[in-house]
Design brief:
By secondary structure, this protein is mainly α. The chain has one domain. The chain contains 8 helices and 3 strands; from the N terminus they run ααβαααββααα. A 3-stranded antiparallel beta sheet has the order 1-3-2. Helix 2 crosses helix 3, helix 2 packs across helix 7 and helix 3 crosses helix 5. The longest helix has 19 residues. It is globular. The model has no long low-confidence stretch (mean pLDDT 85).
Amino acid sequence: MSSYNKDEFVVPPSIELIFDNNQLELMNTLCLFYVFFQKKPKKFYKIPDIIFYYSIVNFNLLNVIEAEEDVGFVSRNLYFRYQQNINQLLLELYNLQFVDIKGKVSFKTDQLGARLTTKGNEFVNSLEIEYFVELINKYLEVIEMVDNNTENKNKIKGGKK
């Protein structure tokens, strides 16, 4: 029996980017902030609200919200993985001066608020990549269509209705 050595196996960067692409998550999050900024530029949005709308659009969870009955098994792992990564993403966006964060160091993530800065708005406006334009439109559509309430959040998390 041979022993398993983690260092013997190398994942090609192209494959790693498909499954763990922090830069893409950062840009997708920035696009969501952009949509919120267009609606209400001065408002700080709570982190759970950002996670909620990000997950619906990027993890194709709209069918979970729209379903009248249980849709069966739906993997919510991506939702929880993004929930764990949001702190790092916010730090990076803050360091780039693309978002402002409202709260104290002692606050839990759920208590923090964030909003796009003018610099972040200008950056997103300068994007001319069709993917991001379509993503912004999807965010707009979902924000208008889906209520951000406890029932819908529980559906996304896999809890009771």
